Amino acid sequence: MEKRILGLDPGLAILGFGVIICHPIKKKAGAARSSAKSKKPLQMLDFGVIQTPANTEIGLRLCTIYEDLDTLLKQCQPDLVAIEKLFFYRMSNTITVAEARGVVLLVLAQHKVPVIEFTPAQIKQALTGHGNADKYEVQQAVARELNLTDIPKPDDAADALAVALTAWFYKS
């Protein structure tokens, strides 16, 4: 049975999203592993960003995130949502990201979608084998795992696909 995983990279200005479809790998009796796959185990369905303008009042920005994410959830109907845990680096930025993340968690709860969270180090470890990977190494791993010719742009969307892939690695 296929599973849709929505990955989210939360932010107030830019919220990245990426949707992957995970197909079970079926083995035929007596067949070699490489010929046993009926479908690619992973497919990228969609990716992109939800953006809010910096010069807009924060309440309206949060409403945009709410409405756009609500629409996205109705369209992609994920079986699981993976979200990056909040990483503290600059207090002023952390507060606004936390506010946006709160809206994201509210929408997910309203849709009754299971949620799993990962730290940035867990995502890097899952995709590259080490928790100190740089952004480019993670982006290359995303493109490789999804058989993409190019790294998804913008970076926030690639990050969201990395979160979705991490959920698949942990859940499979």
Write the layout of secondary structure elements.
Elements: E1 3-9, E2 14-22, E3 42-51, H1 58-76, E4 80-84, H2 91-110, E5 115-118, H3 120-128, H4 135-145, H5 155-171
Parallel strand pairs: 1-4, 4-5
Antiparallel strand pairs: 1-2, 2-3
Helix pairs in contact: 1-2, 3-4, 3-5, 4-5
**Would you count the extended β strands for me?**
5
Question: Could you state the order of secondary-structure elements as H and E?
Answer: EEEHEHEHHH
Low-confidence stretches are 31-38
Average pLDDT, all residues: 89
CATH architecture descriptor: 2-Layer Sandwich
Report strand order across the widest sheet: 3-2-1-4-5
Shape: globular
Oligomer description: single chain
What integer value in Å does the Rg equal? Answer: 17 Å
Q: Approximately how much beta-strand content do the residues carry?
A: 15-25%
Instruction: State the helicity in percent bands.
Output: 40-55%
Cα separation of the termini: 12 Å
Number of domains: 1
Under CATH at level 1, the class stands as: Alpha Beta
Derived from helix and strand composition plus strand pairing, the structural class reads alpha/beta
Question: If helices are DSSP runs of H or I spanning 4 or more residues, what is the number of helices?
Answer: 5
